[in-house]
Amino acid sequence: MTSDVARHGRLLAEDVRVAFSGPARGAAPTVALDELSLDVGAGEIVALIGPNGCGKSTFLRVVAGLLAPERGSVTIDGEAITAPDPRIGLVFQEPRLLPWRSVADNVTWPLQLAGWPADRRAARLSELLRLVDLEEAAGLRPVQLSGGMRQRAAIARALAFAPEVLLLDEPFSALDALTRERFNLELLGLHERQTITVVIVTHSIPEAILMADRVIVLTPRPGRVAGEVRIDLPRPRSLATLDQAIASAAAVEIRRHLELGERAA
Amino acid sequence: MTAAMTHPTAGGGSRAAAAVGRWWPVAAAFAVFLLFWKAIVVVGGLPVFILPPPELVAARFVTAWLDGTMAPHAWTTIVEVALGFVFGAGAGLVVGYALARWRAVERVASPYLVAAQAVPILALAPLLALWFGPGLPAKVVICGLIVFFPVAIATMVGVRSIDPGLLELARAFRATPRQVLVDVEVPGALPSILGGLRVGVTLAVVGAIVGEWAGADKGLGVLVNLARGSLFDIPLLFATLVTIALLGIVCYGLVVLAERRLVGLR
Questions:
Q1: Best exposed site among A88, B21, B125, B192 by fewest CB in 10 Å?
Q2: What is the phi/psi pair of residue A255, to 5°?
């Protein structure tokens, strides 16, 4: 009970439906998400996995307040999310850095937009860069960075306001497999150091198992919950975690849900 | 850098040498151009009133500037170009942005813009001279009109080319429309806009001359007419053309200079 009071960042999505109107007027709208409910506890890591076009990214946009659902609601600690909110940090598939700004100015951009004075921004910047191990690159432009470093900068930027919920939309899909594993572990390290609720959208079963407390499998369009797999592996985790029997059992179960979901659609 | 600091003279010398190395092809090309010109005059046996030799044009250029023939006309044209460019480019930026941001604006306005652009400014100039009189306003309008189109199109293309992901990002960080404009749209569209300004500034000179031809008592376009007509001073005509060309080059150079500063800053 005490932990409930102390920890913030419980994310609740209820019965979310999103439909896009078709290209032609009068055409039936495409339903991207339907009856999607999700309860993520404070500090929990949940992975969303599903086939292409199942609306995973759409769901993250709804949670981030970038897209209004046709039906349903999203709340954080009981407060409705209807617009972008500083309690939510968002990392996209692409780093989305402003190419004409240095890493430092990209990371502190949200703070600048919110009107933070320069000295507070500078102080926060050094914390953020230390967090993602990017201190050396502060003065560089995005073109001078590797793909991995760019995504680190994007993560630092997402953490600028010390959000309670971090949403990650296939953040490492553009990285090579080895870098990706390293990033998964770094992100887990980050999660251990500061309590933050994480929802990560991914295509990768190993990534989902390595990161998450729970893996939610979505059906093809319209996206609904096909099944949920609990990953009862201890933390801190390492790559060796994936070799344990529980991990392989979880992978089998995730695949089964994915296949069932495909067949039902 | 360290070499320049420990041996300042040697560093300065090598820098001068580097400048010579960079500029000699330019100088050589110019020399070839002058020789070619001279050769046409000599080989063709052309009289001065068809094509004066370069040294005669150069001499006339110098005397025209020294005896005060050129300066008042040049000044008039410079003012027309500057004002026309500022107003034309300013309007181009605003309209280009509106075209990019609001589809409805583009749908309604673009036929008129294209139609206005399809009518040659040469045909429009006498009418504008009639409306705005023989003074400065007519030239500024003509000049502004000709500058407007490339700047508007370049701005529209530049704003449209901005990664929608960056705009969504700005939204996620709750940027105000003004912040989106200043932090994303202007710097994102800047390279394209500067390209439009480069085209626009050279056209501004054309616009001023065309405006002067349609009716004026001063300006380089007027001087061209005078030199060809009542004065029948063909070397002066060429000297005026050289002045017009130099004006165009200087204007273009200023935009390029601004571009270097701005693209570094953004």
A1: B21
A2: -60, -40
Task: Using an 8 Å CB-CB cutoff, list chain A residues near B165.
Answer: 92, 94, 96
Report the first-to-last Cα separation within chain A, whole angstroms: 41
Q: What is the pLDDT along chain B (266 residues), one digit of tens a residue?
A: 344 444 444 445 677 788 888 888 999 999 999 999 999 999 999 998 899 999 999 999 999 999 988 999 999 999 999 999 999 999 999 999 999 999 888 889 888 888 888 888 888 888 988 899 888 999 999 999 999 999 999 999 999 999 999 999 999 999 999 999 999 999 999 999 999 999 999 999 999 999 998 888 899 999 999 999 888 999 999 999 999 999 999 999 999 999 888 886 66
Which of B173, B193, B261, B266 would best serve as a mutation to test chain A binding (most A beta carbons within 10 A)? B173
pTM: 0.82
ipTM reported for the complex surpasses 0.85: yes
Given an 8 Å threshold on Cβ–Cβ distance, is B169 in contact with A114?
Answer: no
Output the CA torsion sign for B63, B65, B68, B74. Answer: positive
Residues 51-80, chain A: which have Cβ within 8 Å of B? Answer: 64-66
In chain B, the residue whose alpha carbon lies closest to the alpha carbon of A91 is B169
Contact A100 B187 (CB under 8 A): yes
What is d(CA A18, CA A29) in angstroms, rounded to the nearest whole number? 10
**Which residues in chain B are contacts of A64 at CB distance < 8 A?**
172
Question: Is A83 an 8 Å CB contact of chain B?
Answer: yes
A2 token code pair: 């005490």
Residue A31 has what DSSP assignment? E
Is residue A239 within 8 A of residue A185, CB to CB? The reply is yes
Of chain B, the end-to-end C-alpha distance in Å amounts to 26
At which residue do the structure tokens 């990209």 appear?
A: A106
Q: Which of A252, A264, A198, A167 is nearest to A225 (CA)?
A: A264
